[in-house]
Amino acid sequence: MTFVFDAHSDMWSNVTTRRLAGQSHVFEQYHRRRLKEGGVGALIAAVWIEPDYTGDPTARMLDILGCAFCELRENADALGLIRRFDDMDRLQRQGKTAILFGMEGLSGLKGKTVFLEALYAMGVRHAMLTWNEENEFAAGVGAAQSFCGLKPAGIRAVKLMEELGMIVDVSHASEKTFWDIEKLATKPFLASHSNAYSLCPAKRNLKDEQLKAIAAANGVVCMNAWPDFVSTAAPSAEKLADHVDYIAELIGIDHIGCGFDFCDYLGDNELSFSENTQVQTPGISHAGEVQGFLRILRERGYSQDDVDKIAYKNIRRLLGDIP
Fold it and tell me: How many CA atoms lie within 13 A of 258 on its CB side?
């Protein structure tokens, strides 16, 4: 079975909802089996402020951080944090799921860039400046003023993240924010869950020049299984593989990864932002189906080494480039 690093998971949202309702050991009960079935041995688990909590993002951020670390403590036999480059390999040898703790937007910081120091001390090693909204740091793809990019706090945040050794993620960034980050960044950056705009013109997907810029920075673009980003008609695992084909032809196999953004465990409240009733892509609808997607790639002629690069090696390289 091919080892997989999934560069985007909203698992902490599910963990928090269930823990605040009185449950415990949520990972063991609701996530471990499917991750194991799909060979997903490492993932970026991100703090995401769901739409219902945007009125007080700081409170929700603190709830998620607290619940996540409770879960890590209770499941210490099955989970471990990636704090340094070699942690992923060590956790893999121990049979544990390796968690790279991330932030899907920084709205909860209220523009306080210095709090990134505290997040780093906790173990956070990755962040997007924004989800879809405009906040004190930058504009996301859903911002009303799409011409707005990095703000002064966002510039400080990118510089501090690079100084600390945190991955800068451009998924959810507006085009202006993307290009502002591209100009400012001195290290490789990541698009943790975005596909090719040329195949599916969703605003969350990346245009060809953006894909080329990520490759030029030695970054990685990770394939997203959310149906709206796969195809405008009849999304499927095969059509997600089309994005791999397209991006590989455009920028090369060394800059493609997996960031599936699975939503099978999220409820109506978390998914209230979506106007589409379809929230899963047939054939790649949850973590347990990941090996089937990789099989499609092999059937299309990708070598096992190519598949390994997409599944985990390219992300592993990125981790090594951001000490």
Answer: 33
